[in-house]
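BUG: 3D viewer hangs when loading the predicted structure for this chain

Environment: internal workstation, default settings.
Expected: structure renders.
Actual: progress bar stalls at 90%.

Input used:
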Amino acid sequence: MSPLQPQLSAVAPLSRRFDAAAFAARPGLEEVGVADAAGMAAGVGFLAARREREHRLVAFVAPRFWLHERGRPYGHGLERLGVGAERLLIATPANETEALWTLEEVLRSGAAGLVIGAVEGASLTATRRLDLVAREAGALVALIRTTPTTQLSAARRRWRITPAPSAVDPWDAKASGAPRWRAVLERSRDGAHGEALLEFDDETVRLRLVDGLADHRLAVGATRATPERLRKDAA
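Structure tokens produced before the viewer hung:
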């Protein structure tokens, strides 16, 4: 199999009737599971790409020890996803207990539309509080973690996110294309579940399903498109 065609897991694929709107950010609590540091970057990027385009901030809350081990979100990368430095708030409490308190306070302030917490563990009571406060604030709050959890949670959606190879840039065969994520919706309050390959469109600043792209060959990277090839196809 080509490296540009990542293998699917055993999870059933999402129905083709779904479009990017199925991944729209909704007020409330979500959980995002990732495998490692590279996956953490993918998880943060996935959440940033899904956020509502509004004047409010994007807040990232992580205990200091977490940042020492995995580093801070990359500002230039987030800017490409539509999150400029003036819209980014980073808080570094001492531990996870303080991180959960900080998440609630940021939500209560109403200053942020998307709040991401790098919290590996949270009780059912804590997740219920976060979900309630987030819905009252009309914001999405997401707990992102690298370790599996067996605890009960009030999260409305649970995702598993991995980075995926991008397609070839249509104007430069040696360059990578738009960022892509393999998103597995493992659990949802509305019963939806499945897997999809998503791509970030920097023209619309939105996510789109790769299966829904007009030129499927470009979507899976099966051919290398050049400006000359595109002109020939258009003719």
